[in-house]
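Render Phospholipid--sterol O-acyltransferase in 3D.
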Amino acid sequence: MTALSRPHPPHLIVAATLLLVLLQGSTAADGGGFGADYSKLSVIIIPGFASTQLRAWSMLNCAYSPLNFNPLDLVWLDTTKLLSAVNCWLKCMWLDPYNQTDHPECKSRPDSGLSAITELDPGYITGPLSSVWKDWIKWCIEFGIEANAIIAVPYDWRLSPSMLEERDLYFHRLKLIFETAHKLRGGPSLVFAHSLGNNVFRYFLEWLKLEIAPKQYMQWLDKHIHAYFAVGAPLLGSIETVKATLSGQTFGLPISEGTARLLSNSFASSLWMMPFSKYCRADNAYTKHFSGMSRHGHQTYHCEDQEFRSKFSGFPTNIINIELPSIRGLEAYPSVAEITQTNLSTMECGLPTQLSFSAREIADGTFFKATEDYDPDSKRLFYQLEKSYHGDPVLNPLTPWDRPPIKNIFCIYGIDSKTEVGYYFAPSGKPYPDNWIITDIIFEVEGSLFSRSGDLVEGNPGAASGDETVPYHSLSWCKNWLGSRVNITRAPQQSLLIRYLTAKRGPLRDEDCYWDYGKARCAWAEYCEYRYVFGDVHLGQSCRLRNSSAQMMLHYL
């Protein structure tokens, strides 16, 4: 997920490194199909949650504000309009929680091209703070990949997978992008998917099975996809999605948590990254299709015996621990007006109920059914869960992902960061949407579980902790794709990484050259030379790339 206050994801640096290694180490014998001519390769980027710009597709006059929304105006993310016209901005972002249609007064659509994923809020100050893929694209170009070979495939990250196809024909367009890239460059593509983008790519692979003949499926994949880079993939879901659903998560934006909750719960995609059990699966839509069964029937959700013998659905602990009030219905989440008119002395007192829910009980809807009398969002979310996920005609995304049939797969994620794995919720006494408060948080930290207060917590901690957003249990699911043959590579620190990359590719610009004081000359003698230019203030600044005959001619043309 993207946050204004978070630095550039470090695993994208590792992804760029692996891309370079792949380009230098692959040969025709690998089955690449493009020989050693890497100019034939294309790079397809599928961004993550909230990592694509959204632009207005309608006009909206904002009362009490000099700023209005016009077609093609930036919506996600324009912090200026968010601060000055928040109600208008919310209308352009909001979707109907039942049918995923736009607000009657405003609608937004994803931008296109690389500019849609480089910086969410371009600007002198906001640009670097909202940078997503900008540096990564710059690294790829420095490594020698042509700029026009890098193709971004933005999407409306608010929608469920079926709505992406129904409204925007996204998966049809993605298939055409792969085929067009192959025709233009003559070789397969490298797929880079980050965060929710991995879920999107998984759905595309399943959708593709139903679009082309079975005998041509593997041929199509081998022809159009050489490698898949799964970057920070929430393969078994993300725990932070639960927090966003119940109490709201602002991601550094200047809005209240209640407003963030209202907005997030209007998106069907908020359920796409819900945690789920690795022991529970659904009927295979591909098998149902060719056996003559309806593609539009409800998929059966069934679990292995191991799910009921083990604790916590394989996760370190129960994900939700919630205290339900003794009263039900509207009284459990009154409005502000109702609170001011209520005579508290006449209310009956009762003991609250403490319930805990595992990943399975979240994914199968048990949690939402249990809380539908205490929270108005529970009914809407359960409806969307049944319609868009359990009833999806292509795939139930809330099931474990088997290894995709792609030749080369790189699973890249961060570890050993303090990551949230469980929450304790209680009624806040405030009106909806602020009716829940987090009373405690369970973290995984390098193989141990701790509460927010610092106390050690019992559970089933993993061998490591996650990347601060997704727990290790979910990130590391891809290890099951290769059985016992798993290569684990730890990335070096940044200073060593840059030195390693430079050693691999050699200097490409004057800034890569520097003065070697041990040898009293410019380093990289085969690439760099000492050439003073008026204004240089130190020896390293005078080290520049050697002039080739072609470069010399450019000075005279």
